[in-house]
Amino acid sequence: MFANSMSAIAGPCLCQGLQGSLRLSGLEGSRRRARVAVAAEAGGGEDGEGRGGKGRGGSKGSAQLERWARARRIRSGRMGEGRKGESSVAEAVKVVKEAPVSMVPDYESDEEEDEVHGKGVYMISDGTGWTADHAVQAALGQFEHCLVDQRCSVNTYLFSQINEVDRLMEIIRQAAQEEALVFYTLADPHMAEAAQKACEMLHVPHINILGPITDALESHLGMSPSGIPRGAPGRKTALSKQYFKRIEAVEFTIRQDDGALPKNIINADIVLTGVSRTSKTPLSTYMAQKGYKVANVPLVLGIDPPKELFEVDQDKVFALTINPSYLKSIRIARALTLGMVGDGRTKYSDMEHIRKELDYSRQLFIENPRWPVVEVTGKAIEETAAVILRIYHERRSKHHMPRISRRY
């Protein structure tokens, strides 16, 4: 997933052109009426040609380009030039509510495209979108049994830095058109209220991820939240010790990557070791962002590890292992990017060589029983890091229930 850009081709556009004025006939249900209202309002009136170009006669290519263009306009805040970002929540929601229901976009749905796109999940944030993205990804992990074979295909769309009501309304209208599920993390209570009302009017299923947590903290602390998004001009964040600790950790970890400067290993908080392609560098970088100084030492068949690996506090060392077949597939992909496949000069992705490497590393792990052996096969970086950090803090905690502590 990625901030401020879509994880797949944007869904059907709201602003397809209208060929004349079409009256609704036989529509059943308020949901259908709301979808039609949204499409009509976005279409720009009863002109022979709307903003989307030609209606039913337009080519699929033109329609696709228009959908891409609309997605870019929404993300960049250039939608609805006639309405300024200063418009109130009430005015913006009124636009949604009073949109005419007598018109419908004159274009045929592309069943082939719908099959490719699957179900839509929108994530809207007034910040980076990290919270919403990770929450949704964690929940989607519970549906891997059907996602893996596309029995429940899902596309997620992340909209970050959404700080204007007009942009928020455009996104929700598009979500209604696509029958998408909406998650939002909006610190500004007025923005959150606007999102809720618009979703209710358009019958869009929605979840306010941040709201219940903020309400619970407000009750627990006896203080009102500021309602100012993180990174907003009016919000001042002091440069804390934690900030400088993170900077120092990142700089240290970069210097210690791939066995560099072994004499500095003693200064690391965590030391990772394992054969090539066991995620040592990504894990190191991820944990460094959390303020941990991490060094990683590669294990190479036929080459002794640096003596510092055995001299450092052994409670800091974590051994990484992986399934040989899984490792082979990773190394083949890596070799392809380096142009190493088929040149006959390397055994990098040879299964027999991989097994020898893993046997060598396994024997080393047995000889050093204080090193926790962490399995990385099929795990996300965050999952593996969570295991390592849990063990790290368990070994240093004086509490009967180990936990990771942080003071604000």
Automatic annotation (TrEMBL):
GO molecular function per UniProt: ATP binding; protein serine/threonine kinase activity
Region Disordered, residue ranges: 36-67
UniProt keyword annotations, A-Z: Kinase, Nucleotide-binding, Serine/threonine-protein kinase, Transferase
Any matching Pfam family: Kinase-PPPase
Residues of the signal peptide: none
PANTHER family xrefs: PYRUVATE, PHOSPHATE DIKINASE REGULATORY PROTEIN 1, CHLOROPLASTIC
Protein name (database record): Pyruvate, phosphate dikinase regulatory protein, chloroplastic
Organism of derivation: Ceratodon purpureus
